Amino acid sequence: MKIEQKEEQILRIKRASFESRLNEALEKELHSAVVATVQATLEAALVEEVESHLSQVSGEPPRRSGYYQRRLNPQYGTIEALSMPKLRHSNGQREWQILQRYERSLCHLLDYASYLYVLGLSRRDLQEALYFLLQNVLSLSAVNRVTLRVKERMASYRQTPLAQSPTILLVDGVWVDICYKLDEFKTDRAGHQRQCRAVEERVILAVMAVYPDGSHALLHYTISQAEACDGWLKRFDELIQRGLDAHAVQLIVSDGAKGLLEAMAQRFPNAQQQRCITHKVRGMESKLAFQQLEIQDDNGQPLSKEQAKDQRRSQIFHDAYAIYEAPTHAEAQSRLRSFSETWQPLEPEAVHTFTWGMQRTFLFYNFDPALHPLIRTTNALERFLREFRNKADEIGYFPNEDSCLTLFFLVLRREHAKHNRPFLANNSEH
Known about the structure:
Layout: H1 3-17, H2 24-55, E1 64-72, E2 79-87, H3 107-118, H4 123-134, H5 140-159, E3 168-187, E4 193-210, E5 216-224, H6 229-241, E6 251-254, H7 260-267, E7 272-275, H8 277-282, H9 305-324, H10 329-343, H11 348-355, H12 372-375, H13 379-395, H14 401-418
Parallel strand pairs: 3-6, 6-7
Antiparallel strand pairs: 1-2, 3-4, 4-5
Helix pairs in contact: 3-5, 3-14, 5-14, 6-7, 9-10, 13-14
């Protein structure tokens, strides 16, 4: 679709969707006045900046040499020809404070577009949304440059050196659908050769740090073919390259990811695996036999079979979670024995599943009690992955890995802001 056709389409949508009290001529006149005021203010500020720069130059300063024109896209509307003051020489040696060199849009416009993108808008949706700010339709390539800027920020975030090595890591993965190019080609109806593509499942492996003061932040994430030893080794190596002290890591909390223990043994000699208690408790559900169900509730009211099952499920889960609420490891072991005595006769298979490998779920007792709610489960990481999963489901499948990782980064930045966490917590750059 051509730019002119896209603008006509957007205007039709606008007329059908909004009840404006201003006629289009007056609205256009007001918009032009706002843009003219912004342009005049910016140009005056740029001149003032140049004059300030010249006053600080030692020796004979370079002389002014007129202006050059730049197109700018602030949130107030497109400025077609912003007059930028220039000098007779040394223009390349100085940096603008108001506008970064070669930047065509102010930062808040990029942030606004990124915010819309993370909420699920496609590039064509962004064309429409940005039109109401710029009064011009940006081409898809121009909108794509906005997302490329986000990718640059993402790359910087993922390469930032770590100033502090955490002692505890939470790890988990989220599965996504990504489209990949194949080695095969096909001929379309117009006779053109097109490279075949296929959607494949991939997993984003994520690592979250927990610090002694209880703060936590997602350190690293990348795409892997599977939750296997090789995938985790690569993720751990990338973190070690960023400055993570492998000997400082004492605990890794997970849901029983495949290959993790082997990767831990090779990279983190002092670390133990804490199994997520939520996954451990929920693992009983598929093993419940629902034998000898109670036919009435605590008030003596009769229960249907489904209600009786729900009551059994709720009771056994409640008792299982109560084990981990114990203030000490010894008390937790005592509660575990009581749990087994109560439920073994009724749900032997579920109890066997729950108690097998049980000691890996008690390792959090070796750490500060204030950290226990945070490090006995992977919930802190899973809540974020669930937020990303909701956005990914709206998209369906990603056209490439970069688009997938970019959305992950934007959701990450938004989540940190929502919960008032520093985006680069405990890193060397803030």
